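Support request, please re-run this one:
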Amino acid sequence: MDLLVVVPHPDDETFGAGGALLLAKAQGLRTGILTLTRGEAGRTLGLCAPEELAEVRLRELKRAAEVLGVDHLEALAFPNALPQGAEEAPRGQATGEGLAQHPEAKEAVRERLMGLRPRFVLTFPPDGINGHPDHVATSRYVEEAAAGLARVVYFVRPEGPYPVTHRLRLPEWALKRKLQALAQHKTQALSILDFMERHPERLWTETFHLPGSQGTREGPWW
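Re-run finished. Output below.
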């Protein structure tokens, strides 16, 4: 495995690194996705019953992964935390816990890294980009689990606290495929539209932070 994306929820993989996965695959690299939850605390948008949401989001993830052309996909079933200030919308069945309450997820990640042996692991930065507790916990678990096994790369906001060391500007074919992958996450339609309204440029330009790297490079780190 050359590049493994480890994220808490289905859809995080495409938002944060859909273009990177596509470009890496086009260059002959082996790619993979690991999600730590099945996103059961998300909105249903009336597309399914609350108790069905985890399975629906898993099917959405599988379709997105097919579009992204990854070689490996696995979704674990740790609980999905509600984000702070979550509105009272119809949602799936959440337990009130999240990844932060399940530190054993770190060992689950390390087991996968030992088996897959990726050169690079791509995940959220320590602030989780938006502070979501599952994002923050995933970043911490991945950083600790990857010690001695793989280099960690963060997908980051261009204006955030972690300097951009690598910028990927997606060619038309990759942007098309990334949009197709996003479209598979139908239960996330409102989040996708909100992202498109606030940060449209981040659909075709993905920014990353490789710890220890200096300056900003136009192109991949692999």
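Residues 53-68 form the longest helix (16 residues). Strands lie at 3-7, 31-35, 72-75, 120-123, 151-155, 166-169, 205-209, 217-218.
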